[in-house]
Amino acid sequence: MLKGFFNVPKAVNEPVKSYAPGSPERAKVAETYKTMWNSQVEVPLYIGSEEIKTGDTKKMSAPHDHQHIVGVYHQADKALVEKAITEALEARKKWAAMAWENRAGIFLKAAELLAGPYRAKINAATMIAQSKTIHQAEIDSACELIDFLRYNVEFMTKIYADQPASTSDMWNRVEYRPLEGFVYAITPFNFTAIAGNLPSSAALMGNVVVWKPAATQVYSANIIMQVFKEAGLPDGVINMVMGDSGMVSDVVLSSPHLAGVHFTGSTGVFNDIWKTIGNNIATYKTYPRIVGETGGKDFIIAHPSANPTQVAVGIARGAFEFQGQKCSAASRVYIPQSLWPAVQAKLEADLKSMKMGSPEDMSNFITAVISEASFDKLARYIDQAKNDSDAEIIMGGNYDKSKGYFIEPTVILTTNPKYNTMCTELFGPVVTIYIYEDAKWSETLKLVDETSEYALTGAVFSQCRYAVEEATVALQNAAGNFYINDKPTGAVVGMQPFGGARGSGTNDKAGSSQNLLRWASVRTIKETFVTPEDYKYPFLG
Prior knowledge:
Layout: H1 24-37, E1 41-43, E2 45-47, E3 50-52, E4 57-62, E5 65-74, H2 78-95, H3 100-115, H4 119-130, H5 134-161, E6 170-178, E7 182-186, H6 192-204, E8 208-212, H7 218-230, E9 238-240, H8 245-253, E10 258-264, H9 267-279, E11 289-293, E12 298-302, H10 308-320, E13 330-336, H11 340-353, H12 372-387, E14 391-395, E15 399-400, E16 406-407, E17 410-414, H13 420-423, E18 430-436, H14 441-451, E19 454-455, E20 457-461, H15 465-474, E21 481-484, E22 501-502, H16 513-517, E23 520-528
Parallel strand pairs: 1-5, 7-8, 7-10, 8-9, 10-11, 12-13, 12-20, 13-18, 17-18, 20-21
Antiparallel strand pairs: 2-3, 4-5, 6-23, 14-17, 15-16, 19-22
Helix pairs in contact: 1-4, 2-8, 3-5, 4-5, 4-7, 5-6, 10-11
GO molecular function: L-glutamate gamma-semialdehyde dehydrogenase activity; proline dehydrogenase activity
Family: Belongs to the aldehyde dehydrogenase family.
Domain Aldehyde dehydrogenase: 58-524
């Protein structure tokens, strides 16, 4: 056992604060939100030791009040992206050689900074620029990111401790080296925790990173960089660049030093990245690791034995928390005829009670979708459902972008199990329900499995264990994260390793040691103590 393994603090999941009315944490976030709302920030490029302001800026606004500008961020040109690569490779010389305990200490300190002095700030930033409610911000930008940072250290030590057998005359060991080159991290808007985890998990294993956050998440990404710097992350280990996505990727993916891609985003973009890497494969010094979590068309299926109230709450939370913009959000639901009246009544009552508006009002359950492009796309599908003969909007269906990008929680009922909103990823507060005959349970399981190209998350509700077992087997390839009697969202680091297959990604399971192992290149070392001096084996006589 290597020195120090028993001394690493054991990872614990960060407790979720309630933010109940009158609580001190609620007052603190409200105060921080107001202060940040009334000031503007200027987000630089973080390249090496420099914070670069190019003058080529883009405005950042709040989705729930799109005319309110909260700041600007600077954009890189091709030369600055190349500079980020150069600075990363220079930083690698010392970072890759640093003792793992010292790398661990940096990210454990970052976790404590987020748990304490930065908690209100990172939550308020996520509320402002990503329009998350305080609860959604807390479980994401505070708790999940803290959990990633803590658990990744524990996962790293377990990986390093996995050593081969040796004998009295030979000593075998494996060395978990960082990849030879740099890692390109591309992160989405919807989870601040993902934005922090994708570059930091690779960096923890000794790699250097060029990180491109989503344009709509730069506001909170800037705070992540501030936390990393305060925690002592050396210059150049993680370089944050913003700019034209196509240009940045073209430069990065053409570098011979590309060693890996850590991606969360759309399936189409990931496919293009994979194709580009394939076309460039002869130029790389090493085969790049490609790790991606992409789209989803996540399902709920209820068995006739299910509790209808539980099913309705699973739909309400699974489909409409964070406006359905979780990659795990429920977006297609299969309900037996016998259960539908009770499920419908409960779901209607719940939706009528949901308030919609700015996250500053912490009594709101629904806020705005992330952008005008997202709003317009969702509005088109809602309008189409209003006109199609095989679909009907039975709840919600209204939208308004005059102040913010607000779309009512919308429920579409269809008679066509292959209706377009049962198949197409929408990424918004729209769920489509198909009613099946109770006797066609097994047929419907097959339908669920065959309907979507994706396989990210899914849930079954049933009080019959035989039905649960049948669904678990029938849907084994339909969801990388499968839930029994629960909504298909809310994976917790260290408890439910997250990721899907098919069109949903490489299923490398963020929140587990499996993901961290992708950022290590293993070297086996065999040392023989008494070296043979005659080539002859006993069989030669």
